[in-house]
């Protein structure tokens, strides 16, 4: 692949909130992309601690129903004001539910522990490095999904939903949920994005 094609794919990756259920590719293609992320994204010391859970169609809708009921529980205890839930949280959750799928990005701490013991000098680095690698999986899939015609956005309802989600899909309870990527047919363009000056953000030394 040319560098230009790679940059085009990066430019095409944007946050798209309004998503629908018309998948531009088959579920098998989605699976292929997810497997490609797992196989090709690097991890520190090759720990391979990232875990991906893909929820499609009804399973995806169940995730957002679980998120809504979790918030209803918080409203009942007074932790979240009912107005905030009704006017802000619920409309957002309904918008996510209208999409085609969600990818849950996890870290399995069991695969980090051994490295922390073996390389004690780097002990405190393994968790942030695991998050870096997890984020690379997110970026890979965000870009890949949008390159095949989906739109996507990244959400963080963890840790609120961790326990009911683990229970629903029988996932190991020690897996740490890092992010949720909602994807579906793009139903509205991305918003405007302001860019800070490149000169403030990039320094090059030794350029011809
Ligand atoms: C690490 C990270 C965390 C983010 N968390 C959220 C989030 O919780 N909710 C959300 O709506 N967008 C989230 N975003 C999306 C950013 O707001 C968005 O990427 C940024 O405004 C740039 O817009 P673009 O994605 O269209 O390029 C996150 C992005 C990154 C990289």
UniProtKB/TrEMBL annotation:
Q: Does the keyword Oxidoreductase apply?
A: yes
One example of the protein's molecular function in GO is: oxidoreductase activity
**Where is it located?**
Cytoplasm; Nucleus
- The source's superkingdom equals Eukaryota
- Start and end of every Nitroreductase domain? 11-184
- Record flagged with keyword Iron: no
Q: Which CDD domains match?
A: Frm2-like
**Entry's family note:** Belongs to the nitroreductase family.
Give the protein's recorded name. Nitroreductase domain-containing protein
Q: What is the lineage of its organism?
A: Eukaryota, Fungi, Dikarya, Ascomycota, Pezizomycotina
